[in-house]
Amino acid sequence: MDLKDLFLTPFYLALFYGLAFAARKRFTNSLTKKYFIPALTVKFIGAISLGLIYQFYYGGGDTFNYYKHVKIVYQAFVDSPALGLKLIFGPATYDPLTVKYTGQMYWFNSPTEYFVVRVASAFAVLCFGTYSIIGLCFALLSFSGMWAMYLTFLRVYPLAYKKLAIAVFFLPSVFFWGSGLGKDSLCMGALGWVFYGFYHALIVRRNIPTALVMGGIGLYILISVKVYILLSFLPPALLWVFNENNQRIKNASVRLLLKPFFLLFGLAAAYFGATNLTAGDERFDVENIGERSRITQEYLTEYVASGSVYQIGELDGSLGSIVKVAPQAVFVSLFRPFLFEVRNPVMLLSALEATLFIWLTVSLFYRTGLFKGLALVGRTPVLLFSFLFTIIFAIGVGVNSGNFGTLVRYKIPLMPFYLAALYIMQSIAQAQRQPKSTTRVQLNRSRKLDSLAVTE
Description:
The structure is a single chain. The chain has three domains: about 5-175, no CATH class; about 235-285; about 290-455, no CATH class. It is built from 21 helices and no strands. It has helices at about 5-25, 35-60, 60-80, 80-90, 100, 110-125, 130-155, 160-170, 170-175, 185-200, 210-225, 225-245, 250-280, 290-305, 320-335, 345-370, 370-380, 380-400, 405-410, 415-435, 435-450. Helix 10 (about 185-200) runs antiparallel to helix 11 (about 210-225). The chain is globular.
């Protein structure tokens, strides 16, 4: 970052806030209005903080590697707008007209990284190639998806609207790592759009055109950048659809009879989707996932300083070894690092969040009882979806990280879903313990909040 950032950033911040205040009435209601600007603000803080920490604490990193590529594309646009647009929107193939620029970009032939460069370069054209403003644009893009995620959770369970705002917007790791120039910002926004699109198109069947467009854009981004997020999302999401449809069957006997068929069909559809999405991809092909996990874990464990390394067991390249270490992978993803394992300020944030997860999980299941709590999850489709997504994703990132430095970034997609599920579960359990008169009041309030939760 340089002087250009200092001079231009305040003007663009004013522009973005002006647009946000103008859009707030359209995308909020009496429940959500007070969270819109604070949630956007923490995203902006995260984007600027990410750049500052990478520049002054780490002395470099991926965010500035992306920016180096962006500067090359932006220079090409300055030299010739046609060449710049070709680098942004054209195929990543050899072209004698652009080789002067592509020869300087070592990520030009890396599809996932260059996708981020394309998006950032499009923003650069609109802000004179300024790093901090590009970061703010990524934060704005991410925020739009996170807001869609919040509205979806709110529509499912409006009684917990206050705590759901905390779960989605105000976890430090999520708004720090998921806001600046990088893959994580795009993926958090895309995951929110997919969640919104999936729920509205396939479960409540409302606003289907909007849901399909938003969900389709989110799917495209996830497939382009981090397809494993989609692979973790797909099986529990399909199960959610079949659970919801199964519950709508009024005849209890028919509902019980059809449930196994719904489950089998959902699992088959998820497997078919996963294998076709990753077929031929050397990184994520289902047939190669065990070996790739072993290689990735070994690389990241050796690459990062020993103070942040964790061990969950040996991987031999087989799926069986992943299954064997799965419980440890889930535990480390959700509940570590512990406070006594902290080695730097970034790890401290993650450790505080992990401590919150431990306290909420233990206290919730202690109050409700383990078996009653599991039964509640089993009969509440959104809880089952959220916990299954959390577990599947936690296994993936826990196995592949090998150190807390990468784990803290990799795991942020699961964090809003896990905390939101805990808060919804807590709210349901509290309502069940209330006297009948209070329960009726809560039910009436829930109906009122449900009508207020609709912003479409």
